[in-house]
Amino acid sequence: xxxxxxxxxxxxxxxxxxxxxxxxxxxxxxxxxxxxxxxxxxxxxxxxxxxxxxxxxxxxxxxxxxxxxxxxxxxxxxxxxxxxxxxxxxxxxxxxxxxxxxxxxxxxxxxxxxxxxxxxxxxxxxxxxxxxxxxxxxxxxxxxxxxxxxxxxxxxxxxxxxxxxxxxxxxxxxxxxxxxxxxxxxxxxxxxxxxxxxxxxxxxxxxxxxxxxxxxxxxxxxxxxxxxxxxxxxxxxxxxxxxxxxxxxxxxxx
Length: 254
Fold this sequence. Notes:
The protein is of the alpha+beta class. It has 3 domains: about 1-35; about 50-65 and about 175-220 and about 240-254, Translation Initiation Factor IF3; about 70-170, Alpha-Beta Plaits (2-Layer Sandwich), CATH 3.30.70. The chain has 4 helices and 10 strands. The strands form 3 sheets. It has a 5-stranded antiparallel beta sheet with strand order 5-6-4-7-9. A 3-stranded antiparallel beta sheet has the order 3-10-8. Mean pLDDT is about 80; it is low at about 1-45 and about 225-230.
C-alpha cells in the first residue's frame, strides 16, 4: 500500500512538472514570435479565437501543352594512339559538325559545349596505355521542332557519332501562361472541395481567410534518343509537357 501511495504521488508530481514545462514552452513561443495568447494554429497559419470556424483545403491544377522548344546533345568521339592526335581529330570533326549546324540556321547562341573529356585506353592484361579517347558534346537548343529530325540527321552525316537524350520544353512566356491557367483550375478545385465539406457539415461558407500557392512544378519532357551507327532519318514525335500548381485556401463558415 505504501509503495502504491509513493507511485501515485510521483505520477502527480511528474504530471505537474510536464504541464509546467509545456505551459512555459508555449508562453516562450508566443513571446518570441509575438503571437497573442488567444491565437491558435491551423495548418501552419495563426488564427485568433474568432476565426476557428474554418475549412482548410488544398487544390491542384494541371495544364498541358505541346512543347515549342527542344534541347539535344550532339557529340563527337574519337580515338587515336596519342592524346594529341585524338584531340586534333576530334576538333577537326567537331568544327565540321558545328559548321553544318549553322548552315541549317542554328546560331551561336543556341550552341554551347556541354561536356569534354580526354582519357587513356588501357590494355589491362599488359597493363599499358594503348590509346586515347576524346569525347566532345554540344548542347544545342532548337526553337523549331519541325527542324529537329533534319538537324540531327545533318549532324550525324557531318561526323557526329553521339546523340544523347532530347528534352522537349516550353518557352518562358508559354510557361507563365499555362501557370496562370493552372492556378485558376487549382483555386476552382479547392473551392469545390470546400463546398462539399461545408454542405456535409450543414454550414455556409462566408469568406476566404487565407490563400497561398504551395507548389509549382514544371519539368521538360525527355526522349531518350540514342544514335547507334546509321543516319536516323526518323521523325521525332514529342509528348505533351505539363505545368502543375497547388494552392491552399482557408475558408471561414457561419
